[in-house]
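Hey everyone, long-time lurker, first post.

I ran two proteins through the pipeline my lab uses and got sequence/structure pairs for each. Pasting them in order. The first:
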Amino acid sequence: MDAIYKIEVENAENEYVTLAEEAVNQINGTIPSGAAVVNFLPFLCYLPSWLPGTGFQRAAAEGRKTVKAMSERPMEYVKRRIAEGIADPSESFTSMALENFQYEGAEDDIKWASATMYAAGADTTISALKTFILAMTLFPDVQKKAQAEIDSVVGNGRLPTFEDMEALPYIGCVIKEVLRWRVVLPLGIGHSAHTSDYYAGYYIPKDTAVQANVWAITRNEKMYPDPERFWPERFEGGDKDIVDPHLYAFGFGRRICPGMHFAGATIYITIVSLLAIFDISKDVDEQGREITPDGSDDGCFINHVNPFRCRIRPRSPQTVELLKKGQEELR
C-alpha cells in the first residue's frame, strides 16, 4: 500500500487493506482451471442467473463490484493528494505514473496496473513469509546460523539493508528454500498449448489447458534430497543439478510474474530484518511443554501454511532500540 499508493497502514483493519483482501479472495476463487463450469460450457453465461448451475453469474457480479472499488478508491486517494499539493510525484508508483504518462486512457491503465500490483503481490508474498516463520519455528539451527551471518556482516549498531544482500549468501539460501519448501503456487498459473504436441507419450491438442505441477518439481528427490526437510545448505556450493526455485516459483515463459523482483526485494528485506531483531521459537502450553506446529498447509490455489502458534521475541534491548529507530526514519 505504501509503495503503490503511499497509503500508511497502521493496523489490519485499514479500509483499503480490508477491501483489497476481499477482492483478492474473490479473484483467487476464480483463477484455477475448472473453478467455474462456464469455462468449459461458455453458453451458460447467456442463461438467467436464477437457474440452477448459474451461481457463477452472481459471484461474478459481486466480484466485479468489489474489484472495481478496490481499484478506484486508492486511486482517488492518490489523486486527492495530488490535487491538494501534498503528494511528491516520486512518493508512490501511482503518483509517479500519473506524473509521467498523459496519453488518452492513461489514467485507466494506471488504475488497473496499480490494483494488479497489489492483488498479485499481497497474498503471495504473505504466503512466503508465513512459510519462513514456520521454518524458523521448526528448524532453530537454521535460524541461529542465519542470525550469526547477519551479526558478522551487519553488526549490532544498525539494521540490515539491501546493500548487505551480496554479503549474506546464507540468507539467499534460506530464501530459496522458503520458495521451494512450501511453494506459493503449487500448480502455477494456467497456460494454453499454442500448437499440438506430444509429451512423455501423451498427445496434447492445440489450445489444451496446461498446468505445471510445480509442487512435484519441489519434491523431486533426485534434485532435492529429503524434500520435506527445510535445509538451505542444499543450495550452497553452486551444484548445477539443483534448480534455483526462482526459476519456477514465479511462473514460466512469457507469463512469468512481472513483479518477481519487487516480491524478491520484499521477501529479502522482511526476512533479514526479522532475523536481525527477533528470535522465533515454539510456543509452550499451560504446563510449559513445547507446542510443535504440524506444518500443514491449506492446499489452496495460493498455498498458505495453516495457522500455528509460535513465540516471536526481541533478541535484546538493543534490537528493540534499532527497531524503534528504523520506524522513526520511515516517518
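...and the second, right after it:
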Amino acid sequence: MQEDLLAYVPSENALQGRVILVTGAAAGMGKAIATACAQYGATVVMLDKEVRRAEETYDAIVNAGYPQPAIYPLDMQGATAKDYYDLAENIHAQLGRLDGVMLNAAWLGSFTPINHYDTELWSKMIMVNLHANFLLTRACLPFLLEAADPAIVYASHESNKAYYGAFGVAKAGMEAFCDILAAEHDEPSHFLRVNTVDTNAIRTGMRTLNFPGENPNSVARPEALVAPYLFYLGADAGKRTGEHAVFARQPADARWAGEASAA
C-alpha cells in the first residue's frame, strides 16, 4: 500500500556514502528532504537561488552532526544547458559520484484562466517547472548511470485543474517525462529508478502565497511527509520504478516516526 510509505523509516545510515542533489533545498519541502537525507547519511548538494536560506539549511545540517552538505547557487529560470552540465561535472569532480536527484523546485506564479494568461509568464513557468528539470536530468544522467543504485524522484502535484495554467501543464508534462525516463532505464544493464511522489497539501511559503485565505497551521508540515521521498531515493526501493505515489491530505498535526527517532 502506498499509504504505508508515509510511515517508512530507513535504517540508520541507509543513505551513507550517497551523494544526492536536491533542487529547491533552501526551504519548504526541499529543506525537509535535504535534512532527512543528511540525517540518514547522505552528502546533500543543495541547489537553490536563495543563498541565504540555503546557508541556514546548511548550518542546521552541520549543527545536527550530519555529513557536510554543499550549496550550489542556481536560478532555474535563467540557467542554460551549459550551467547544468557545469553543475553535474562539478559534483562529480568534487564529490566523485552522484547517486540521486530529487526534483523538488517549483514555482506557481498565479492562478489565471488561459484566455488571460500572460505569454511571458507562461514561458517562465514552463521553464522553471518543466524544461529546467529536463536540462538538469539530461546533464546528470551519465553520472547517475555510473552509480550502483541510482534514483530520480520528482515532487509531483495533481494540477490539471482550472486556472492552474502553465503550472498544471508543466506538472503533467513532468509526470510523462518520468514515465518515459523510467521505461527507458528499466533494464539491469542501465537501471535507473524513477518515481514521483504527490504528498498533497504541504505547509510551505509557496502554498501560503497562493492560498492566502487558508490557515497555514491547518496544513501538514513538510517534515512529516518526507518518508516516501527517502524510500524511493534509497536501496529499500529496489527495482520499484515508474510509480506515482499519491497520498490523501494529511492532518495538520501529522508527525513522521523518523522525527521522533532523531529527537
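Reply from user beta_strand_b:
Welcome! Quick read of the second one: Residues 2-262 form a domain with the Rossmann fold fold (CATH 3.40.50.720). The chain has one domain: 2-262.
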